[in-house]
Amino acid sequence: MSFPKRVYSNAMNHHQELLQKIAAGNSTPEERAALSEWLKTLSEQVYHQVLLDYAEIMSQQTVSDFHNAALLEKVNADIARAEQVTLAVPVYRRMWFRYSAAASILVAALLSWYIFSPFKAAVPVATTNIPPGSNKAVLTLANGRQIVLNSAQNGLLGKQGTVQIIKLDSGLLSYQGATTTGEVLYNTIATPRGGQFQVLLPDGSRVWLNAASSLRFPTAFTGADRAVTLTGEAYFEVAQNQAKPFAVTVNNMKVQVLGTSFNIMAYEEEGAVNTTLVSGAVKVNCENNQAVIAPGQQAVLPTGKSQFEIGAANIEAAVAWKEGHFLFDNNDIYTIMRQVGRWYDVEISYQGDLSGITLSGAISRKKYVSQVLDILATTGRVQFEMKDNRIIVMAKQQ
Q: What is the pLDDT along the chain (398 residues), one digit of tens a residue?
């Protein structure tokens, strides 16, 4: 097997051969040390690409390809000892982790997941498997009529005044033909646990709804502003309109914008409303307190409070769900499992002391729940059992 076709220098091609020798179990300590030093010289972009390419090769291997597990385990241990850090979290094929340690630890992590997991005595996580969430939502019209969007045919779904409600081939719900006069009618689109959906509002603004969320909006923005109401989580790309500010009300808080991209996470069980700005500028209001945040910042409003906490945001982590990933940035296991529970529509329970268990990494949201749990279990920090629609989370017994 060889690396996928990329534009690589001769030096990179040489080191790809070393990675393949490691995969085959016939590399020398000198070669492994040289590889470790070379990885430290790469830019972040090239470094990540090399790791992903290596992971792509490993994903095509079979268990029989790794007959010399003992030798490869020694490789992993040698690299980890050389950096004098403990390998805490393995890396899955498209699962990358943020480390302050040197690049060689990521190589060790790759080896740890791809090579050793087939030989481990795994804890069974599922007697039945659960597929990932999908595009599912219910649209409630102004007259109370409900349309199940995931089963509705593409095309015209109905009319609200002069506005046509159309389900496009892409699955996007679109409101077309809006006017600035006439009766104001309100619609609500709601996603269940295990669902997501996109809607193109009458002004051209686009909204991505995460699982267990809802958006109430007028079928035409006829007033002085463009006001919508959110529960749960959504990502907004707001159409520019200087004459009509866009406003999102969530709980007792309001977010005001002219044209920008931002994410609001307001699940009740998370204990706070997080507003993360990707581009533009927004003003957040709660009672008599307000703040303006800049791109790359996040405004956090804890439940029951009116004072915002403003700080730097991990943009990738905040919007990863929209891009089809879970992205954990040193999150505690409870936060992680709440995301899993909402996306797979499963109940979560815990056994034992799980305090202090935090993980970082990315996992595709397109995987079955058992695959996600298996990946999390490879960290060696947690283990799982699954009974029907319930996941039991336990600390890994040492």
A: 343 444 445 555 666 677 667 656 667 777 777 777 777 676 655 665 565 555 444 444 433 333 334 434 444 444 444 333 322 333 332 333 333 333 333 444 443 333 333 333 334 454 458 999 999 999 999 999 999 999 899 999 998 888 899 999 888 999 998 766 667 899 999 999 999 999 999 999 999 999 999 999 999 998 889 999 999 999 999 999 988 999 999 999 999 998 899 999 999 999 999 999 999 999 999 998 999 999 999 999 999 999 999 999 999 999 999 999 999 989 999 999 999 999 999 999 999 999 999 998 899 999 999 999 999 998 899 999 998 899 999 998 76
Residue with tokens 């305090």: 355
CATH number listed for the domain at residues 324-395: 3.55.50.30
Q: Are 326 and 96 in contact (CB under 8 A)?
A: no
The tokens for 45 are 């972009």
Its CATH class, for the domain covering 134-318, is mainly beta
Distances (CA, A) of 313 to 167, 283, 320: 34, 16, 13
Contact 178, 202 (CB under 8 A): yes
User: For residues 290 and 296, is the Cβ–Cβ distance under 8 A?
Assistant: no
Residue boundaries of the structural domains of the chain: 10-119, 134-318, 324-395
